[in-house]
Amino acid sequence: MVSSLLSNETLSQLPQSPLGQLMVAIAQFDAARENETTTTSTTITTTTITATTTTTITTTTTETTTTITTTTTTTTTTTTETTTTITTTTTTTTTSTTTITTTTSTTTTTTETSTTITTTTTTETTTTTTTFTTTITTTTTTTTTTTTTTTTTTTTSTTTTTTSTTTTTTTTINPCTLNTYRWNTTGITILSSSQVTAVAEIFFDSSDTMYVADEFNNNVVWKLLKNATTPILVAGQLASPGSSTSQLYNPQDVYIDSNNNMYVSDCLNHRIQKYVNGSTIGTTFIGISASSGAALNQLSYPRHLSVDPTQTYMYIADDGNNRVMRYPMSSTTGTNGTIVAGGAGAGNTNTQLNNPWGLYYLPTVSNYLYITNAVGHSVMRWIPGASSGEFIAGTPGVSGSNATTLNQPLAIKLDSYLNMFVVDYLNHRIQMFCQNSQTGVTIAGTGTAGSSATQLSSPRGLAFDSSMNLYVSDGGNHRVQKYLKL
User: Fold this and answer.
1) For residue range 52-87, what is the model confidence (pLDDT) as tens digits?
2) What's the CA angle centered on 380, arms 375 and 386, to 5 degrees?
3) Looking at the structure, do residues 128 and 207 belong to the same domain, yes or no?
4) Fewest Cβ atoms closer than 10 Å to its Cβ: which of 73, 120, 155, 263?
C-alpha cells in the first residue's frame, strides 16, 4: 500500500502538484482501507442506484498526456484495470438485479474529450457503495465534463383500437331481368290524324315539352307543351316543302340544346338546320343545302341525330352514305365532319352499315354508338372511330318476325340499365331487349298492323318522358300514341 511506504511526514512534504495531490489521495484511501473490517457478506441486496459522477478537468494550452500508474496488491480484492477516456458519451451497464451490486462487479464510465488522459487504476468495490469525485487541475484551460448515468424505466402502454366500418352497398336490379318492366299495352292518342300526317321521330326536352318531326305532306316541326292538347308549329311551312331558310323537306328528327336552340334533320335537303331560341328561320348548320354528297362536309339523306351530354359533338345517321358522321356543335355550313362508323359501303358485315337510320349515343351510360340498319334488319353497337362494330340484335341481312329477328328497325333508345328499345317498323311493334339479350319482348303493338288502341301500323319513332311513359309515332295511323308506365 502507498500509505505503508510513505510516512505522514513524507506525505506532508510532497509537492502541491497534481501528481502529488493524487498520491496523497491514494495514500489516504489506503489508510482508510487498513482500518476496515474485511468481513464479506454474501447477502445480495437488490437496489436501484443512480450514480452521478462529476469530473472537472483543466488542461494547459499545450496538449499534455499524463500517465499515472498505481499498482495495488491485496489478497481479498479483485483488481480491475480500467482505461477511462473522457468523452460526452454515456454508457450504462445494468446487471440482472441492479445497476451496482454488492458482489464484486465493476461499473465503468467512459468519456472522451479532445484531451486524452489514460489512467491505469485499480478500483476495489466492497459492500459499501462509494461515490468518487476526482478533480484534476492544471493551468490555463479548464474543461469540465459532467457525466450523468441515469437508469430510466419506461412503461409503454399499447392501446389497440378496433374500428368496425359497415359499408352498405345498394344494388339496383335491372327491372327488365325481373320481368317487371312493363307499360300499359293500350295506347292513348296524344296527337291525332287531324293534327299530324306522318310523325318521323319524337323528342322531349327537360321540361317534358314534346317536339315531333312531321314529314311527308306537312313538312314541319310541332311543339306540344306538357299536358297540352294543341300543338304549336315551330319550324317549316305547312304543306309547303322547300329549301329556303323558312322551309323543310321531309324532316326526320329534332334536338333541343340547353340554350333552347333547335336542330332539325332536313332529310331531302341533305342538311341540318339550326333555329336559334324560338326563331322560325333556320340556318344551315351541317351539310350543304340541297346538295347530296359523300364529301366530309356533305350529307345524303340524314336521318336521326344524337348529341353528347356536354353538347360538344353531334352524331348523324348519314343514311345515303351508309355511315355515321360526327360534327362539332360549333359547325357552320360546309364544315368537315369525321366518319365514326361505317363508310365502307352498304353491307351486312361488321365493318359496314346498311342504311343506318336510328342512332343513340350517351357516353355517360355506354361508350358505344347504337345504330339500326334499316335495310340490314339489325342493330349494331360501335365505338366511335373504330373500324368495325358488333351485331347485338336481329340477324344481319335477314328479316323476320319472331323474338330474335327484326324487319326494318328504325328508331332506337336506351335507358340507364342499357335496356334497348327498337321500333320494328314492318312488324308493327316496339321491341325491348334487356341488357345483353338478343331476344326481344313486345311492349307496344301486336305484330299485326291495325288502328285499334292496342295496335300500331308502320311505327317510325319513339321517346320517353321524364316519368318513363312511352310515346310512339304511329306513322300508318297518322297519330302519336302514349303508353303509361306500369
Assistant:
1) 333 343 333 334 343 434 333 333 333 334 333 333
2) 120
3) no
4) 155
Q: Which residue has the higher pLDDT, 198 or 75?
A: 198
Domain harbouring 265, CATH code = 2.120.10.30
Who contacts 89 (Cβ-Cβ below 8 Å, separation ≥6)? Answer: 110, 111, 112
Same domain, 201 and 347: yes
For 116-182, list the strands marked E by DSSP: 119-122, 135-136, 141-148
Contacts of 357 (CB under 8 A, 6+ apart): 303, 304, 317, 319, 372, 373, 374, 409, 410, 411
What distance in Å separates the CA atoms of residue 469 and residue 484, rounded to the nearest whole number? Answer: 5
Q: What are the cell numbers at 332?
A: 357552320
Q: What is residue 93's predicted lDDT score, i.e. its pLDDT?
A: 37
Q: What share of the chain is helix, strand, coil (3-state, %, to 5)?
A: 10, 35, 55
Q: Can you tell me whether residue 2 is helix, strand or coil? A: helix
Residues 6+ apart with CB under 8 A from 458: 425, 426, 428, 449, 474, 475, 476
Whether 196 and 179 have beta carbons less than 8 Å apart is answered as no
Residue 248 cell numbers, joined = 323543310
- For residue 307, the enclosing domain spans 188-483
Cell of 451: 288502328
Distances (CA, A) of 484 to 41, 126, 182, 184, 457: 107, 107, 9, 5, 19
**251 belongs to a structural domain:** yes
